[in-house]
Design brief:
Chains A, B: This is Peptidase. Chains A, B: It comes from Parathermosynechococcus lividus PCC 6715. The structure is a homodimer of 263-residue chains. Chain A has 263 residues and is an alpha+beta fold. The first copy, chain A, has helices spanning 53-68, 81-105, 155-161, 168-185, 216-235, and strands spanning 3-9, 12-17, 20-22, 28-30, 34-36, 43-51, 112-120, 126-130, 136-138, 145-149, 193-199, 207-211. In chain A, the strands form three sheets. A five-stranded antiparallel β-sheet of chain A has the order 10-1-2-11-12, covered by helices on one side. A five-stranded antiparallel β-sheet of chain A has the order 5-6-7-8-9, covered by helices on one side.
Chain lengths: 263, 263
């Protein structure tokens, strides 16, 4: 699995990804999943990838080929982030179409997803999630983060704390904790972690860091966080047990279309 | 969805469940998913259910029918928790066998899972997870909690903090926070929450509570927890950005069986 996370706030953009790839539990390797296509001073474009590695790699190859060939439409020339995300989505559709029939024959999952974040001069910053089908979602003030891959373990920490007006420096810390929580709960998500922080209207990546396995700062953050959680638990009010509760026989039973009801 | 959680520690057992059932987003209702079959003084048996509601309900009906008919083999007579979990598993197999062929015709999910926890005089406490196929897992000192249903959102908080020697009162708080995190991140998991705490060798449920929507204690706990997380964030060391990182071109690329690699 992968876990990639993008956060868009009023003051900037954070993009983060792990680097573990697995083709079954006995074939685990390291692949970069966060790619910087920025042209400093003019545009910042960062792409994260999750899903079928052969497809995401080929999409990136096509993107790089267009850049190298100095084609009319490339990440260096497209006029705005909307065109950028449509362009990446169309590359994804092109590669998927080539391979899907063959993968389907053997029931191999061809799904993959992309995060595309950045800012092009003349616009505000944008963050998009591109689905396997090439359509895309945009981060908004109400939902300022987008995730791909193994998204669930790292979501509660963001749901509890992150807002559109969170300073981008704080958002970078949230991102690191969200990745660390995911690594802790799912062994198929693992370091090195790639983390990028971008300040709105700076038009260059402000900070980029890679955290390798056993990185002292990562160890320090995890220890700090777990100690903080334990302290918070210790200070948490005791459960007030004395309250009404329904016995099994008094539970409300409503008619429900049983055949499809799941709980 | 459902989220049910069982925790087995040296000092006791905690079982917890939400009560939201959905058959599609436009058919959401409330069903109890935590059932107490204890015989105070002699045995404590608590069952939680997740999955296809028609099947889990019918399994409980058969269990209750055996109790009412005072059959030789019932939850009141089985000599140990191992026999109890085999018995519940066999009921599940019986009900599944009846319905599976019909559900399969319309591609309806027949999967369901059970948690069975408790203690019978003469034994230590046990906690089991029964799979849809009727086989089962046991909680152990290394992995003292078992989850069914929507398990991921509530797992990081347990992975970070819970151990086999955690006092059972504290484990009950963890359980409540784990459920609350899940509710916060997945709207199909919802109150009332059912929570049971059992102390080893007491042979009766020590505490049971139901937390309805807007329960003042639940609101207090959530506020406290989110404030604690925010404070912990504020105190968290700033990211040390100055470190080596690999550029895209220097990333290690190993051969991988591309057709099946997912990241």
């Amino acid at each position: 699995m992968t876990y990639c996370l993008g956060i868009l706030t009023t003051s900037g953009l954070v993009m983060a990804a792990d680097s573990r790839t697995n083709a079954g539990v006995d074939y685990i390797s390291t692949y970069q999943k966060l790619f910087d296509f920025s042209v400093p001073g003019e545009r910042v474009i960062v792409i994260c990838t999750a899903g079928n590695l052969s497809i995401t790699q080929e999409v990136l190859t096509l993107i790089r080929r267009d850049l190298k060939g100095q084609l009319e439409h490339s990440l260096n020339t497209l006029p705005n982030m909307y065109e950028v995300v449509r362009y990446v989505g169309s590359k994804l559709r092109e590669v998927s179409d080539t391979h899907r029939p063959w993968l389907s024959k053997d029931n191999i999952d061809h799904q993959c997803t992309f995060l595309v974040g950045g800012q092009i001069r003349g616009e505000e910053p944008f963050l998009y999630l591109i689905y396997s089908q090439g359509n895309f979602l945009q981060a908004t003030p109400e939902t300022p983060f987008l995730q791909i891959g193994e998204t669930k373990y790292g979501k509660p920490i963001l749901d509890r704390t992150l807002r559109f007006d969170t300073p981008v420096d704080a958002a970078a810390k949230y991102a690191l904790l969200s990745l660390d929580s995911t690594m802790k709960s799912n062994i198929s998500v693992g370091p090195p972690l790639d983390l990028i922080m971008y300040r709105t209207n700076s038009f260059e990546i402000g900070h980029r860091a890679e955290f390798v396995l056993g990185d002292p700062f990562l160890v320090k953050v995890r220890k700090f966080w777990e100690a903080s959680l334990r302290r918070a638990f210790e200070e948490m009010p005791d459960i007030e047990w004395n309250r009404s509760h329904s016995s099994p026989s008094s539970s409300l039973v409503l008619p429900v279309p049983d055949a499809i009801a799941t709980d």
